[in-house]
Amino acid sequence: MDVTVTHYRQQLLRLLPQGPAWPQDEGDLAVRVLNALALTYLSVHKAAEQLHEESDPRATSALLDDWERNYGLPDLCLTPPVSVADRRARLVRKVVWGGGQSRAFFLGFLSSLGYPIEPGDPSGAAMDLDFVNQSYRTDGYVTITEFRPFRANSKCNAALNQGGWRYAWRVNVPSTATVRAMTAAARCNEPLGSWGDPGLYCLLAQHKPAHTVLYISYGSS
């Protein structure tokens, strides 16, 4: 039942003493005072009903800022959302986000960002693990290279990958990034060249194992 101000006013009127000193006709002072109180109680009632909706990130409105603060939003790696619906969508993704550190997890994460992975292989089996000469073949799909250390049963031409390389891994993006080279008209403090997607690195760096070193390669080599 939809509660209205009339319901609260009737409840308040029933609490008044009976008798000619307490008239309850429309327009009487007591009725006007109780009507003002009923409006206040109705406002509290509606706020309590809305609180139930605010507990759901898919429907929150008044508490959206608090939800975002608790889940580390807005994400500095992403462009700011332009609508409340976009903010809710990002919040829901963050709430249901399970996280992970496996190769399959990062392939799925890259797929959710729109990067192509090999069809029929969501588990990560298609990842490039060619650690012999650190070459990689994207074949149009994003892959991940792990730099495994040299072992007794490794091939004679395999890289040693000692020291910090055992903690390094590389995401191989198939699409060639736009490369901007320094020209004669460029300012003296501009880099000689720039390429890549800083947003992608930012997102991956948020979720990579803390002890690892992340690299991103664009195109093929």
Would you write up a description of this structure?
The protein has three domains: 54 residues, no CATH class; 41 residues, no CATH class; 118 residues, no CATH class. 34% of the residues lie in helices and 9% in strands. The protein has six helices and five strands. The strands form two sheets. It has a three-stranded mixed beta sheet with strand order 1-2-5, with helices on one face. Strands 3-4 form a two-stranded antiparallel ribbon. The N and C termini lie far apart (68 Å). About 8% of the residues have low confidence.
β-strand amount = 5-15%
Alpha-beta classification: alpha+beta
The N- and C-terminal alpha carbons lie at a distance of 68 Å
Total of DSSP H or I helical runs spanning 4+ residues: 6
Question: How many strand elements?
Answer: 5
Taking the sheet with the most strands, its summary is: 3 strands, mixed
Q: Write down the Rg.
A: 31 Å
String of helices and strands: HHHHHEEEEHE
Mean pLDDT over all positions: 80
Report the principal-axis shape: elongated
Question: How do the strands line up in the largest sheet?
Answer: 1-2-5
The proportion of residues forming helix, as a percent range, comes to 25-40%
Model regions low in confidence, pLDDT < 50 over at least 5 residues: 122-138
How many domains comprise the coordinates? 3
Write the layout of secondary structure elements.
Elements: H1 5-14, H2 29-54, H3 64-70, H4 84-96, H5 103-112, E1 143-146, E2 168-173, E3 180-181, E4 193-194, H6 198-207, E5 213-218
Parallel strand pairs: 2-5
Antiparallel strand pairs: 1-2, 3-4
